Amino acid sequence: MSSQSLVLGIETSCDETGIGLYDLAQHRLAAHRVFSQIGMHAAYGGVVPELASRDHVRRIVPLIRETLAAAHAELHDLAAIGYTTGPGLAGALLVGASVAEALALALNIPVIPVHHLEGHLLSPLLASEPPQFPFVALLVSGGHTQLMRVSGVGEYVLLGESVDDAAGEAFDKTGKLLGLGYPGGPAMAKLAAGGTPGRFRLPRPMLRSGDLQFSFSGLKTAVLTATQQPDYAPEQAADLAAEFQEAVIDVLCGKAVAALEQTGLPQLVVAGGVGANTRLRDQLRTVISRRGGRVYFPELEFCSDNGAMIALAAAMRIEAGLAVPTQDGAFAIRPRWPLDQASA
Predict the structure, then answer these.
(1) pTM to 2 decimals?
(2) Which of 8, 74, 241, 258 is the most exposed place for a label (fewest CB within 10 A)?
């Protein structure tokens, strides 16, 4: 490793091109930039993998230059490069991996493959008042809903996860059922803000299952069934969205509390795109504080995919002596990669 202290993070797992710079010497984020492809994919009602990959190719080098400029840094200031190696879309992952490996080879610095969910899990540590290890992490995004026990960097134990749709995926699919645009999650939350929960009665799947597993596919089906009733009218969509949101939040809160009780830990860390939901944040703060615990969230700008969290994860692995650089530019992406398999 060079005598310089900046770690470059590259995130291209899906539909955001994210670049971050973390300063190992000063233990702070130096700069980050994100370009979202939402506008491009909205016309198709969801992410088109080939279009995502091509857009990453267009955006990644200009974003690296822009991020370096924002930090008043040059390429020779880099000590290492971290990139998302999985999980994610194969073509999109290849863009970030190839750029990271080529750049590291040219600069003769280490390159660190990073698990995408590890980045999300550690992102609350970028806050001014970060949590301390150990804690329980609730990862809630479009592709994952998981509870993890986190004892330290690389020390992850899976406590429970969704057996079908993730929470964010259920939000998106339900939004589509109600005629909302892509992405459905934020649109659903906005619609729900104008509705009243309780006017429809939706199930709370697996809330009392006795374990820490999740299931949201049936909840989506329950919404479809409600819209097919003879007395349903389109103007009731806000009430239905509000009840759906409340059902998801009730399950997430209930399982989070159960995970804290099972582990005996007082701290809950929430990460992933669904963690930006205002109602979820308010309810988790209420239920966790009621039992004497505390909940931590990433800053809103770090809830969606970003390069800052990848730079942080790579930097923390370097500091912990857990970084395993790839050799001689050889790399492999891992579109499917359970987080507990990324443990130290």
Answers:
(1) 0.94
(2) 74
CATH number, domain with residue 187: 3.30.420.40
Residues 178 and 292 in one domain: yes
Q: Are 241 and 188 in contact (CB under 8 A)?
A: yes
Q: At 160, list the tokens.
A: 């429970």
Alpha helices (H) in the chain, listed in sequence order:
38-42, 49-70, 90-107, 116-122, 167-177, 184-192, 217-227, 237-263, 278-290, 307-319
- Distance separating alpha carbons of residues 62 and 57, to the nearest angstrom: 10
- Write down the pLDDT at residue 132: 96
Write out pLDDT tens, residues 332-342: 899 989 887 87
- Residue 1 counted as domain residue: no
Verify that 111 and 66 share a domain, yes or no: yes
Q: How far apart are CA 79 and CA 97, in angstroms?
A: 17
Domain with 282 in it: 130-297
